[in-house]
Structure formats: structure tokens, C-alpha cells
């Protein structure tokens, strides 16, 4: 078996490296092939589900066949939009750069499916992995052997066998698979096995999505209209005993209700159990059986706990030969009993009474975070409390389990109920990496950079100016800075060409803390004079010695010479070395500010940055 695992993994990894699966056409072809597989073999799927779990054909289509077809159709309609890069708006500071987010496949994916929905929980994640462009190996549950054999036989006949493989086996095969390196692991199952999967994935730093479970509560508030109460109880019956005989991770685990409504609730539960499953549910064959003898014994032990049997108000009969457990209702079983501390995962429904339904929030918060919370109420304030004061994978008001069928909503847990999400676009995201892409330009060169004279006053000034744009405190300030930024960007683009043909103009900066931006104006004035030598020099041939002398001369000579002249080129190490206009004037402003601080010269008499 080691050789089979290594060969299968090597083949799907080679297929992924060939970039074959990145094609949208390939993804669409595989999704259509999957639909064809289900449509051509619907009867075979129903028979396999009946052999493994005793599911009725109607239940098989509703929870398995229909779910896969719906999900595949949704992916086919949206895959072109999902794979397209999404543009991201960047701050004007980075203009003319462009940004986008590009989804890319993770690589080789391992999917562990569960036995309670052995078809949909294998193929639903597969649809997301294919849509994202991955190659996949699926490990079906050995506790549903007929469905596992169906997948192993038919999937290679319809789909790309070099990119999608089914590996059957028990715990030893699962252990071998977990020893390999994967790009993503998707697991659906119990918390105990989930911990094993997480430990194995940690060795290779493999990202994992865990769809676990938990004790999902249902809150039944007082409903003034009797018709609303009947609808609520009918949905509770359908959500508890309808899908897979209560063996569902998002099924109702227990009901919280006020004491005065408990008798009404039990009466309606019995009524709708008879309507849905008949007088004798075992003979009606409308309800799935327990998956195997091990789980049957687990449920028997839950009912045999101390004082638990005394709380049974309906049902409790067990058929070991046919692995069938009758729908069972318990009223106020001990809260420390195993039936109230462990996930039931069967057709047993405890009812817990409270003096006030508002206490249900505290009751839920005292236990691990559930996969879902169901609440039947018309009280908007109570709804807001449930949403704000509890934590769960999902919250559904006035219905049960419908969130699982909605591709527009994410499905996943939190805390011990799992982490990660899937369904619809969220499945695509789960099996994709969103890569940030930024396309910059060589001009203009934006300062500051993480080198050079970062601690100078000019750079600190520039950082304050940038901060004012990126996090404006008022609308007026934002518009003001945006206007000056547009002007600055436009000016910077033509700065190099303008300085070759235009003479220099002196500009007075009226407010150094909020400058109006640079202005490049033509003039007929004579070129600036070198104040150190009293010699007129054109801009293109100005000496840089003014900056050096300003650093070497003593205070008296500086004072007599006046403020330092603007240099043509910076000294070595003062900027990037390219002689760019912005770096030259950063050095000049540093010298000018040092002169002003030393001699307290009036700013109104100091020339600002010329063009």
C-alpha cells in the first residue's frame, strides 16, 4: 500500500506541475464530467446509500445527489468570475502603480470524507478544489464501504484519472497518507481524528480545514401564534430525525425551552414524529439506521447513564439486529451526564427547561462553541443578544439546517467545532491562494526609501505630509492634500525637462507644516549668484562646494555669508547619487533649516526651494 500511495501522489503532483489544471477549460470539463457521473448513476448512488446507511431514495437525492448537482452548477456559472484577477485601489501616493489580487491553486489536495454523507461530503469539497485548479486525492470513509467502492470505480471513468484519484482503505491507509507532504488537507469528521490530522499536518506546515461538529442547540422562544409553534416543532422534527437518522454534525443536539412550554413542545413533537415516520418508524423505513455496531453501542451507553433512563418521555427502544434506534425524547437529563457533554450524533433529543428563555445564552456560553445555533423567536432584541453574546459557526433563525444548502453563505465551525469554511465561492477561496500583485513604474522616484538620510528634517517633513494623505482626519484636509498631491505628481513628471529650459524662480514657503506644494514658474530674472563667491552661475553648472563649506566653516563666517546657496548636485552620500531634483533640494532644506535654527533668522527673509 505504501507504493500505491507514493505512486498516486507522484502522478497527481506531476500533473499539477504540468500546469494542465490551471486551464479554465480543464476545470469546466471536470465539473461537467462530475455532473454526468451523478446523472448517469443516480440509481447506483441510491442503492449504495441504502446499503451503507439505510437511506430512503428521497433522502438520498435531497442530501447527496441534489447537493452535488447544485454545487457543480453553481461553480460552472461562476468559475470565470472567480478565477479573474481583482483590481485593488492603491493610495495616490503610489501613482502610477497598479495593484490586483490574483487567485492561484494551492497544489495537491488531500480530502478525507465522512461516512454520514459519503457522497456529498466527498464530491462537494472536490468541486471547490477542481474549480481552484488543484489536483486531488480523496480518501473515502471505510465505514461506508458501498459508497467508497462506488467512488473508486466510477470517478476514474468520468474524470481525469491523472489529476483526481480515490484511495480506499482503513486507518492504516489514512496514516500513510498523513505522512506525506500535501499543499492542503480538508477533513470532515470527529474532533478526536481532527486532532490527529492537525498533528500530522503540523510536521509539514500544511494548511488544514477541519469540519468537525459539536452540540448544536435549538432555542424555542414563546410564540404567541399557535401556527408558528407548529411550524417550529415540525422543522425541529425534520432537522433532528430527518437527515441520516440524526447522525449529522449540524443536526439539533438538544432543545432549550421555558418550563411552561415543555409539555406543549413534547405533545407537538410526538404528533409530528407520527406524521413523518409513522406509528412504527422501524417498519416504515423512512429513517436511516445507525451506521455500524460500534456507534450503536455508543448510543446505548448514552441512554444507560445514571438517571438518564428516568428522563426518557418517549421512545428508547433499540433494535440491535437491524441497528435501529427509535426517535427518543428526554426531559431534563442530568447536565453532567455524557449525553449532555458529548455530541450525541444519533436520534436522541434532550429537552432542557429554563425559567426564562434569556438564560439560554448563558447556558450555551458555558459549553464549547457549537457548529450552529438554531433559534425560533420573533423577539428582535433577543435575536440581537444571540448574535452579539454567543459564538458559533452559524446562526439560523426560525429554521434548521438550511444554511448547509446555501452556496452564498460560508459553512464552517469555530473553536472545537472546526475552522475553515467552504461552499460556493468560499470553497474556491479555501483551495486557492490570493496572491498580491503590484506593478510599479521607474518614474517618478518616491522618497523616502529605507536607506540614506532618513533622520533629516526634510524626510521627517515628507513623512508627515504623506501621513496626512494616507490617514486624513477631516474631509477638507483630505481634499486639500489630494489636490496638492495631484499637482505635485504632474509637476514631478515634467521636472527634469523643465529644469533644462527654464531659469530658476524663488518661491517663498508661507507655511512649512502645510505647504501648498511646489510651483514651477518661468521667469526672466538673472541666474542665482553664488553667495560664497559673489559670482553668478547658471543652474546647470552651479558648484556643490556651497554645501560642503556650510558644514566646515565656523559660526562667524557662516553668519556673514548668509544662508547656504541651493546646490546643483549633492555631495557623495547625501542622496541616491543620481543628482535627482528631489534629493538635491532635500539636502538644501537640511542646510537651510540648520542655518535658521543656529542664527534664528526670520523665515520671511529666507528664500524657499527654487524650481
From TrEMBL:
Residues 564-599 form the Oxidoreductase-like domain. Residues 8-437 form the Aldehyde dehydrogenase domain. Residues 531-545 have a biased composition (Polar residues). GO terms for biological process: aldehyde metabolic process; response to abscisic acid; response to water deprivation. It catalyses: an aldehyde + NAD(+) + H2O = a carboxylate + NADH + 2 H(+). GO terms for molecular function: aldehyde dehydrogenase (NAD+) activity. Belongs to the aldehyde dehydrogenase family. GO terms for cellular component: cytoplasm. The lineage of its organism: Eukaryota, Viridiplantae, Streptophyta, Embryophyta, Tracheophyta. This is aldehyde dehydrogenase (NAD(+)). Residues 549-559 have a biased composition (Basic and acidic residues). Residues 513-575 are annotated as: Disordered. Its EC number is 1.2.1.3. It comes from the Eukaryota. Keywords: NAD, Oxidoreductase.
